[in-house]
Design a protein that fits this description.
alpha+beta; seven-stranded mixed beta sheet; six-stranded mixed beta sheet; 7 helices; 20% helix; 33% strand
Protein backbone atom coordinates (compact mmCIF):
# COMPACT_ATOMS: atom_id res chain seq x y z
CA UNK A 1 0.00 0.00 0.00
CA UNK A 2 1.15 3.54 -0.70
CA UNK A 3 0.58 4.70 2.88
CA UNK A 4 2.10 1.87 4.92
CA UNK A 5 4.47 4.32 6.60
CA UNK A 6 1.58 6.25 8.16
CA UNK A 7 1.16 4.78 11.64
CA UNK A 8 -2.03 4.55 13.65
CA UNK A 9 -0.28 6.66 16.30
CA UNK A 10 0.05 9.48 13.78
CA UNK A 11 -3.57 9.01 12.71
CA UNK A 12 -4.81 9.19 16.30
CA UNK A 13 -2.74 12.23 17.17
CA UNK A 14 -3.84 14.06 14.03
CA UNK A 15 -7.52 13.22 14.49
CA UNK A 16 -8.08 14.01 18.18
CA UNK A 17 -7.53 17.80 17.92
CA UNK A 18 -9.91 17.91 14.95
CA UNK A 19 -12.50 15.96 16.94
CA UNK A 20 -12.26 18.31 19.92
CA UNK A 21 -12.62 21.36 17.64
CA UNK A 22 -15.87 19.94 16.24
CA UNK A 23 -17.40 19.17 19.62
CA UNK A 24 -19.84 21.82 20.78
CA UNK A 25 -21.98 20.63 23.67
CA UNK A 26 -19.29 18.58 25.48
CA UNK A 27 -16.91 21.55 25.37
CA UNK A 28 -19.47 23.74 27.16
CA UNK A 29 -20.29 21.44 30.08
CA UNK A 30 -18.52 19.76 32.99
CA UNK A 31 -16.09 17.08 31.79
CA UNK A 32 -14.80 14.12 33.78
CA UNK A 33 -11.90 12.08 32.47
CA UNK A 34 -9.38 9.59 33.81
CA UNK A 35 -6.83 7.36 32.11
CA UNK A 36 -8.43 4.16 33.47
CA UNK A 37 -9.32 1.83 30.60
CA UNK A 38 -12.97 0.76 30.56
CA UNK A 39 -15.47 -1.02 28.33
CA UNK A 40 -18.92 -0.32 26.92
CA UNK A 41 -21.61 -0.70 29.57
CA UNK A 42 -19.39 0.05 32.57
CA UNK A 43 -20.91 2.26 35.26
CA UNK A 44 -18.61 4.66 37.05
CA UNK A 45 -19.09 7.20 39.79
CA UNK A 46 -17.98 10.78 39.21
CA UNK A 47 -17.86 13.72 41.58
CA UNK A 48 -20.56 16.33 41.19
CA UNK A 49 -19.27 19.89 40.91
CA UNK A 50 -19.78 21.62 44.26
CA UNK A 51 -22.32 24.45 44.30
CA UNK A 52 -21.57 27.24 46.80
CA UNK A 53 -23.57 30.31 47.75
CA UNK A 54 -22.18 33.80 48.31
CA UNK A 55 -23.62 35.83 51.20
CA UNK A 56 -23.28 39.35 52.53
CA UNK A 57 -20.51 39.83 55.08
CA UNK A 58 -21.79 40.81 58.51
CA UNK A 59 -19.12 42.66 60.51
CA UNK A 60 -20.93 41.94 63.78
CA UNK A 61 -21.37 38.18 63.47
CA UNK A 62 -18.51 37.39 61.12
CA UNK A 63 -18.56 34.75 58.43
CA UNK A 64 -20.41 31.46 58.36
CA UNK A 65 -18.43 28.64 56.80
CA UNK A 66 -20.22 26.46 54.28
CA UNK A 67 -19.81 22.72 54.33
CA UNK A 68 -18.25 21.27 51.20
CA UNK A 69 -19.92 17.92 50.83
CA UNK A 70 -18.69 15.97 47.85
CA UNK A 71 -21.45 14.04 46.17
CA UNK A 72 -21.18 11.58 43.33
CA UNK A 73 -23.42 10.47 40.49
CA UNK A 74 -23.39 7.20 38.59
CA UNK A 75 -22.77 7.47 34.88
CA UNK A 76 -23.13 4.54 32.52
CA UNK A 77 -20.66 4.55 29.66
CA UNK A 78 -23.30 3.42 27.21
CA UNK A 79 -22.20 5.17 24.03
CA UNK A 80 -19.52 4.43 21.45
CA UNK A 81 -19.15 6.73 18.48
CA UNK A 82 -17.25 4.86 15.79
CA UNK A 83 -16.04 5.37 12.22
CA UNK A 84 -14.79 2.28 10.38
CA UNK A 85 -13.32 2.09 6.88
CA UNK A 86 -11.33 -0.26 4.70
CA UNK A 87 -7.75 0.84 4.39
CA UNK A 88 -8.10 0.62 0.64
CA UNK A 89 -10.42 3.64 0.87
CA UNK A 90 -7.39 5.91 1.27
CA UNK A 91 -4.58 3.96 -0.38
CA UNK A 92 -3.72 7.06 -2.39
CA UNK A 93 -2.77 9.06 0.71
CA UNK A 94 0.97 9.60 0.52
CA UNK A 95 1.33 11.41 3.85
CA UNK A 96 -0.59 12.53 6.91
CA UNK A 97 -1.67 15.78 5.25
CA UNK A 98 -3.34 14.08 2.29
CA UNK A 99 -4.77 11.43 4.62
CA UNK A 100 -6.30 14.22 6.74
CA UNK A 101 -8.12 15.63 3.73
CA UNK A 102 -9.41 12.22 2.61
CA UNK A 103 -10.33 10.69 5.94
CA UNK A 104 -9.28 12.27 9.23
CA UNK A 105 -11.27 15.51 8.98
CA UNK A 106 -14.49 13.81 7.80
CA UNK A 107 -14.06 11.13 10.46
CA UNK A 108 -13.60 13.70 13.23
CA UNK A 109 -16.67 15.62 12.05
CA UNK A 110 -18.75 12.43 11.96
CA UNK A 111 -17.68 11.39 15.47
CA UNK A 112 -18.39 14.87 16.83
CA UNK A 113 -21.80 14.97 15.17
CA UNK A 114 -22.88 11.79 16.93
CA UNK A 115 -21.45 12.84 20.31
CA UNK A 116 -23.13 16.27 20.13
CA UNK A 117 -26.42 14.67 19.12
CA UNK A 118 -26.36 12.18 21.97
CA UNK A 119 -25.57 14.87 24.53
CA UNK A 120 -28.39 17.19 23.53
CA UNK A 121 -30.89 14.44 24.35
CA UNK A 122 -30.43 15.66 27.94
CA UNK A 123 -33.02 18.36 27.30
CA UNK A 124 -35.54 15.73 28.40
CA UNK A 125 -34.32 16.11 32.00
CA UNK A 126 -34.99 19.87 32.10
CA UNK A 127 -38.34 21.11 33.44
CA UNK A 128 -37.91 24.89 33.14
CA UNK A 129 -38.85 26.40 29.81
CA UNK A 130 -39.66 29.58 27.94
CA UNK A 131 -41.17 30.23 24.53
CA UNK A 132 -43.90 28.60 22.49
CA UNK A 133 -43.62 25.29 20.66
CA UNK A 134 -43.71 25.91 16.92
CA UNK A 135 -42.65 29.58 17.17
CA UNK A 136 -38.97 30.21 16.43
CA UNK A 137 -37.21 32.53 18.93
CA UNK A 138 -36.42 35.68 16.95
CA UNK A 139 -36.23 38.69 19.29
CA UNK A 140 -34.19 40.02 22.18
CA UNK A 141 -37.29 39.48 24.29
CA UNK A 142 -36.90 35.72 23.74
CA UNK A 143 -33.36 35.85 25.07
CA UNK A 144 -34.46 38.14 27.90
CA UNK A 145 -37.09 35.59 28.90
CA UNK A 146 -34.39 32.93 29.18
CA UNK A 147 -32.23 35.27 31.25
CA UNK A 148 -35.16 36.13 33.52
CA UNK A 149 -36.02 32.49 34.21
CA UNK A 150 -32.40 31.57 34.87
CA UNK A 151 -32.14 34.50 37.29
CA UNK A 152 -35.30 33.38 39.10
CA UNK A 153 -33.98 29.84 39.33
CA UNK A 154 -30.71 31.02 40.87
CA UNK A 155 -28.46 29.92 38.01
CA UNK A 156 -24.94 31.34 38.50
CA UNK A 157 -24.43 34.26 36.13
CA UNK A 158 -20.93 33.31 35.02
CA UNK A 159 -20.38 30.96 32.05
CA UNK A 160 -24.02 30.71 31.02
CA UNK A 161 -24.37 29.30 27.51
CA UNK A 162 -27.13 28.79 24.97
CA UNK A 163 -27.37 26.45 22.00
CA UNK A 164 -29.79 27.42 19.22
CA UNK A 165 -30.92 25.47 16.20
CA UNK A 166 -30.26 26.82 12.69
CA UNK A 167 -33.64 28.55 12.39
CA UNK A 168 -33.34 30.38 15.70
CA UNK A 169 -29.74 31.33 14.96
CA UNK A 170 -30.71 32.75 11.56
CA UNK A 171 -33.50 34.80 13.13
CA UNK A 172 -31.57 36.05 16.14
CA UNK A 173 -28.51 37.24 14.22
CA UNK A 174 -30.79 39.63 12.32
CA UNK A 175 -31.81 41.47 15.47
CA UNK A 176 -31.01 45.16 14.88
CA UNK A 177 -29.01 45.39 18.09
CA UNK A 178 -26.69 42.67 16.77
CA UNK A 179 -26.58 43.81 13.15
CA UNK A 180 -25.64 47.30 14.36
CA UNK A 181 -22.81 46.01 16.51
CA UNK A 182 -20.30 48.21 14.66
CA UNK A 183 -21.91 51.26 16.25
CA UNK A 184 -20.65 50.11 19.63
CA UNK A 185 -17.13 49.70 18.29
CA UNK A 186 -17.26 45.90 18.26
CA UNK A 187 -17.85 43.95 15.07
CA UNK A 188 -16.47 40.61 16.27
CA UNK A 189 -19.88 38.95 16.18
CA UNK A 190 -20.42 39.99 12.57
CA UNK A 191 -16.94 38.94 11.47
CA UNK A 192 -17.15 35.52 13.12
CA UNK A 193 -20.76 34.81 12.22
CA UNK A 194 -21.48 34.21 15.89
CA UNK A 195 -23.84 36.10 18.16
CA UNK A 196 -21.28 36.11 20.95
CA UNK A 197 -22.31 37.01 24.50
CA UNK A 198 -25.77 38.57 24.65
CA UNK A 199 -28.08 38.86 27.65
CA UNK A 200 -25.43 37.16 29.76
CA UNK A 201 -25.38 34.10 27.47
CA UNK A 202 -22.56 32.83 25.28
CA UNK A 203 -24.58 31.90 22.19
CA UNK A 204 -23.77 29.10 19.78
CA UNK A 205 -25.51 27.36 16.90
CA UNK A 206 -25.71 23.58 16.69
CA UNK A 207 -27.34 21.38 14.08
CA UNK A 208 -27.73 18.78 16.83
CA UNK A 209 -30.40 20.74 18.75
CA UNK A 210 -33.37 18.39 19.09
CA UNK A 211 -36.97 18.60 17.97
CA UNK A 212 -39.14 16.84 20.51
CA UNK A 213 -41.49 14.11 19.26
CA UNK A 214 -43.65 13.46 22.29
CA UNK A 215 -46.79 11.59 23.12
CA UNK A 216 -50.35 12.59 22.31
CA UNK A 217 -52.73 13.71 25.05
CA UNK A 218 -56.20 14.87 24.03
CA UNK A 219 -59.36 15.50 25.98
CA UNK A 220 -59.38 17.39 29.29
CA UNK A 221 -56.76 15.78 31.53
CA UNK A 222 -56.98 16.44 35.28
CA UNK A 223 -55.60 14.86 38.42
CA UNK A 224 -57.69 11.84 39.36
CA UNK A 225 -56.57 12.13 43.00
CA UNK A 226 -54.76 14.62 45.20
CA UNK A 227 -51.03 14.92 44.42
CA UNK A 228 -49.07 15.49 47.61
CA UNK A 229 -46.07 17.80 47.71
CA UNK A 230 -42.98 15.74 46.96
CA UNK A 231 -44.82 13.15 44.86
CA UNK A 232 -43.01 11.95 41.75
CA UNK A 233 -46.00 10.32 40.03
CA UNK A 234 -49.78 10.60 39.95
CA UNK A 235 -52.77 9.33 38.01
CA UNK A 236 -54.66 11.29 35.38
CA UNK A 237 -58.29 11.18 34.30
CA UNK A 238 -60.26 13.02 31.64
CA UNK A 239 -57.79 12.30 28.82
CA UNK A 240 -59.14 10.69 25.68
CA UNK A 241 -58.68 6.95 25.28
CA UNK A 242 -55.26 6.11 23.89
CA UNK A 243 -53.59 9.26 25.19
CA UNK A 244 -49.86 8.83 25.83
CA UNK A 245 -46.94 10.74 27.29
CA UNK A 246 -43.28 10.31 26.46
CA UNK A 247 -40.10 11.11 28.31
CA UNK A 248 -39.30 14.77 27.79
CA UNK A 249 -42.89 15.98 27.46
CA UNK A 250 -43.50 19.13 29.50
CA UNK A 251 -46.36 19.26 32.00
CA UNK A 252 -47.88 22.43 33.41
CA UNK A 253 -49.67 21.95 36.72
CA UNK A 254 -50.60 24.46 39.40
CA UNK A 255 -48.41 27.21 37.97
CA UNK A 256 -45.29 25.03 37.79
CA UNK A 257 -43.60 23.12 34.99
CA UNK A 258 -42.39 19.54 35.12
CA UNK A 259 -40.71 17.15 32.72
CA UNK A 260 -42.11 13.66 32.16
CA UNK A 261 -39.49 11.06 33.09
CA UNK A 262 -40.88 7.93 31.41
CA UNK A 263 -43.23 6.87 28.65
CA UNK A 264 -46.75 5.97 29.75
CA UNK A 265 -50.22 5.25 28.44
CA UNK A 266 -52.71 7.29 30.45
CA UNK A 267 -55.42 4.63 30.17
CA UNK A 268 -53.64 2.50 32.76
CA UNK A 269 -50.39 4.13 33.87
CA UNK A 270 -49.38 7.02 36.11
CA UNK A 271 -47.46 10.06 34.93
CA UNK A 272 -43.93 10.25 36.40
CA UNK A 273 -42.36 13.71 36.63
CA UNK A 274 -39.33 15.69 37.75
CA UNK A 275 -38.94 17.68 39.90
CA UNK A 276 -41.20 16.26 42.62
CA UNK A 277 -44.52 18.07 42.96
CA UNK A 278 -43.69 21.45 44.48
CA UNK A 279 -47.02 22.15 46.16
CA UNK A 280 -49.94 19.90 47.01
CA UNK A 281 -52.39 19.77 44.11
CA UNK A 282 -56.07 19.05 44.60
CA UNK A 283 -58.20 16.44 42.89
CA UNK A 284 -59.33 17.78 39.52
CA UNK A 285 -56.39 20.14 38.98
CA UNK A 286 -56.11 20.85 35.25
CA UNK A 287 -53.05 19.54 33.41
CA UNK A 288 -51.50 20.92 30.24
CA UNK A 289 -48.98 18.93 28.22
CA UNK A 290 -46.47 20.37 25.73
CA UNK A 291 -45.42 17.51 23.49
CA UNK A 292 -43.59 19.05 20.53
CA UNK A 293 -41.23 21.82 19.54
CA UNK A 294 -37.55 22.54 18.95
CA UNK A 295 -35.60 22.24 22.20
CA UNK A 296 -33.08 25.10 22.23
CA UNK A 297 -31.13 24.90 25.46
CA UNK A 298 -29.60 27.45 27.84
CA UNK A 299 -27.51 26.20 30.74
CA UNK A 300 -24.67 26.62 33.17
CA UNK A 301 -21.77 24.17 32.60
CA UNK A 302 -22.52 22.39 35.88
CA UNK A 303 -25.99 21.39 34.67
CA UNK A 304 -24.59 18.48 32.66
CA UNK A 305 -21.56 16.22 32.62
CA UNK A 306 -19.67 14.58 29.76
CA UNK A 307 -17.74 11.52 30.90
CA UNK A 308 -15.13 9.92 28.68
CA UNK A 309 -12.79 7.00 29.28
CA UNK A 310 -10.20 5.30 27.05
CA UNK A 311 -11.44 2.05 25.57
CA UNK A 312 -9.75 -1.20 26.54
CA UNK A 313 -7.08 -2.35 24.12
CA UNK A 314 -8.33 -5.24 21.96
CA UNK A 315 -6.19 -8.36 21.76
CA UNK A 316 -4.55 -9.39 18.53
CA UNK A 317 -4.78 -6.09 16.65
CA UNK A 318 -2.65 -2.98 16.40
CA UNK A 319 -4.16 -0.15 18.44
CA UNK A 320 -3.30 3.22 19.92
CA UNK A 321 -5.21 5.45 22.35
CA UNK A 322 -4.62 9.17 22.80
CA UNK A 323 -6.30 11.60 25.22
CA UNK A 324 -6.51 15.35 25.60
CA UNK A 325 -8.80 17.86 27.30
CA UNK A 326 -11.30 15.29 28.57
CA UNK A 327 -11.63 13.31 25.34
CA UNK A 328 -10.04 9.95 24.52
CA UNK A 329 -9.79 8.45 21.03
CA UNK A 330 -8.83 4.88 20.14
CA UNK A 331 -7.58 3.86 16.71
CA UNK A 332 -7.32 0.20 15.71
CA UNK A 333 -5.98 -1.47 12.59
CA UNK A 334 -7.34 -4.94 11.97
CA UNK A 335 -7.70 -7.65 9.37
CA UNK A 336 -10.92 -9.42 8.45
CA UNK A 337 -9.89 -12.96 7.53
CA UNK A 338 -13.33 -13.81 6.16
CA UNK A 339 -13.33 -11.02 3.61
CA UNK A 340 -9.53 -10.59 3.45
CA UNK A 341 -9.74 -6.87 4.02
CA UNK A 342 -7.65 -4.60 6.21
CA UNK A 343 -9.72 -2.12 8.24
CA UNK A 344 -9.20 0.99 10.33
CA UNK A 345 -11.51 1.82 13.24
CA UNK A 346 -11.71 5.05 15.25
CA UNK A 347 -13.93 5.16 18.33
CA UNK A 348 -14.78 7.11 21.47
CA UNK A 349 -16.37 5.69 24.65
CA UNK A 350 -18.49 8.16 26.60
CA UNK A 351 -21.62 8.89 28.59
CA UNK A 352 -23.66 11.95 29.47
CA UNK A 353 -25.42 12.76 32.73
CA UNK A 354 -27.68 15.54 33.92
CA UNK A 355 -26.16 16.72 37.19
CA UNK A 356 -28.12 19.84 38.18
CA UNK A 357 -31.18 20.11 35.90
CA UNK A 358 -32.29 23.25 37.73
CA UNK A 359 -29.34 25.06 36.12
CA UNK A 360 -30.78 24.69 32.62
CA UNK A 361 -33.74 26.09 30.68
CA UNK A 362 -35.41 24.97 27.47
CA UNK A 363 -36.30 27.67 24.95
CA UNK A 364 -38.97 26.22 22.74
CA UNK A 365 -39.11 26.84 19.02
Amino acid sequence: MANTFITIQEIARETLPRLIENLVFPNLIYKDFSDTFTSLGDTIRVRKPVVLEASEFDAASGVTAQDITEQTVSVKLDRIATVDVELSAFEGAMNVRSLAEQFLEPAAAALAKKINSDGLELYKDVAAYTGTAGTTPSALSDMAAVRKLMNKNGVPTDRRCALWDADADAALVQIPAIVSAEKSGSTQALRSGSMGRIMGLDNYMSQAVKTHAGGSVTGSPVLSAKAAAGATFFSVSGAASGSTVKKGDLLLMGGHSYTVTRDAGLDSEAVHVYPPVREEQALGTELTFIQSGVQNLAFHPMAFAFVCRPLSQPAGVESYTTSYNGVSLRVCRGYDMKYKKETLSMDVLYGFKTVYPELAVRCLG
